[in-house]
Amino acid sequence: MRLHLHARALVAAIFAASTLVAAYGLAAPNDYRFALVQAQPTGPGKTAVTVRLLHVPDNKPVAGAVLFESKSDMGPSGMAEMPGKVSPLSADKPGLYRFQIETGMAGKWALNLGAKVQGEADTVRGSITFDAAK
Ligand SMILES: [Cu+2]
């Protein structure tokens, strides 16, 4: 009898765990979106860029993502070969991510990002466009 109860509890636990995995497994990297919050000149040829990472289905900001890849170039101005050095800055709110970018030329720039999000196996990728002043 005891063994029987334990077996049932174990089956229930396994079922609950697999349901949980299935639920999380449904989240896909394209459920996420990067959005520009602010691009602010911080000196000659320098721009501080703040982005928000959103979970699109519920429109909630995603905190604690690890943005392990950040590259900037002038692709939106037809100069994809012109890079800008990107350095991470600390952001003051959960779900916001900030970068200092060496934008040596005024115009439209792209910031291409790759992130690891909690509970998401695949890398989340996205790109935003921002304006850099001279
Ligand atoms: Cu350029």
Number of domains: 1
Report helical residue fraction.
Answer: 10-25%
- Coarse shape: elongated
Number of helices: 1
SSE order, one letter for each helix or strand: HEEEEEEEEE
Mind describing the biggest β-sheet? Answer: 5 strands, antiparallel
Ends apart, CA distance between termini: 78 Å
CATH architecture heading:
Sandwich
The small-molecule ligands in this entry are: copper (II) ion
The Rg value, from CA coordinates, equals 21 Å
Poorly predicted parts: 18-23
CATH class: Mainly Beta
Mean pLDDT: 87
Secondary structural class:
alpha+beta
Highlighted features:
Immunoglobulin-like, binds copper (II) ion, 134 residues, alpha+beta, four-stranded antiparallel β-sheet, 9 strands
Description:
This protein is an alpha+beta fold. The chain is 18% helix and 51% strand. It has one helix at 2-25; strands spanning 32-43, 46-55, 60-61, 66-74, 79-84, 86-89, 96-102, 107-116, 124-132. The model is unreliable at 18-23 (pLDDT under 50). Copper (II) ion binds at residues 74, 77, 79, 82, 105.
